[in-house]
Specification:
With 181 residues, the protein is an alpha/beta fold. The protein has helices spanning 94-104, 121-135; strands spanning 13-16, 19-22, 27-28, 30-31, 42-43, 53-57, 62-64, 71-77, 82-88, 110-115, 140-145, 152-156, 159-163, 173-174.
Length: 181
């Protein structure tokens, strides 16, 4: 297994508009149109620090921002209508990401990934892909590219969205528990 500085797949990610994503297979992130009142969703505790994660039913919006060298992992379980949003810190290794998945959300049917806007995110994204593939190589993966710099990213109903006009801000109830991984 490669360490922090090397991954075979890093050449598959390039900067497109505002963030890094696969060169040939990424989906344009759409504006979020779900519930917007403060208590309708949850946001990571710190808007600019990776490591925070949230878990809820698929109809509860989960958000984060400040994805620079980090990356966002959204695991969706369509069988139980639940999802988790994990703002993966750029220094987190494959084994830690894998441990997170197997401990906190071992069954998932779909994976959404959003890279950050700084080059180091390609290493974070590569580690996420490696960890996901070790747990469930059959899960479909969707990569997103952003259309604004540092948007608030929202996982909702199995997809990723961005909150228009909220770059660098969080819109929902902050997670008060120790959800740092």
């Amino acid at each position: 297994m490669c360490g922090y500085d090397c991954f075979e797949r890093t050449g598959d990610f390039e900067k497109y508009i505002f963030n890094y994503c696969p060169t040939d297979d990424a989906k344009r992130i759409q504006p979020y149109k779900g519930p917007k009142d403060y208590s309708s969703g949850m946001s990571t505790e710190d808007p600019d620090l990776g490591g925070g994660w949230l878990k809820s039913d698929i109809n509860t919006p989960l958000s984060t921002t400040g994805v620079r060298t980090c990356a966002v992992l959204n695991l969706v379980d369509e069988d139980t209508n639940t999802h988790t949003l994990y703002h993966v810190f750029h220094g987190t290794g494959v084994n830690s990401i894998k441990d997170f998945i197997t401990t906190e959300f071992p069954h998932f049917t779909h994976v959404n990934i959003v890279g950050g806007n700084q080059y180091q995110t390609i290493y974070t994204m590569s580690r996420i892909v490696d960890a996901v593939n070790e747990v469930n190589p059959e899960a479909e993966k969707t990569f997103y590219y952003t259309v604004t710099d540092n948007p608030e990213l929202v996982a909702y109903k199995g997809d990723m969205y961005y909150m228009k006009g909220k770059s660098g801000n969080l819109s929902f109830v902050r997670n008060k528990e120790n959800y740092w991984y």
